[in-house]
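Question: Now follow the chain.
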Amino acid sequence: MIVIEHQPKRVEITVYAEFTLADYQEFESAANDAIQFEGPVDLLFDLREMADFTLDVAWEDIVFARAHANDFNRIAVLTHSQWVAWSAWLSQMFVRAEMRVFDEEPEARSWLAEAAGEEPA
């Protein structure tokens, strides 16, 4: 299950339990809408509550990242899992966005706000 929130020039995704292909396609739709109307956006992926993901999600992530190589500015990934951090690093090969992995949400939000010229929350 995922929860998606839209902020100006940012899409925030929180994943709970298993990350399925249907969840990923919901994210893709939200990201495509934001890109269409706002241009390149930032992403905040909160994967701290993700228990697992399906193999088709991993494949879809590669396909989506290659198709949108220039559509993201910064990507912040929140996780406590070294495996997820490694997977995020692997995905970075397909996008030109700056990507960082964070343990704590305030640090991730501060980094995204810094790039957007916002005051940290």
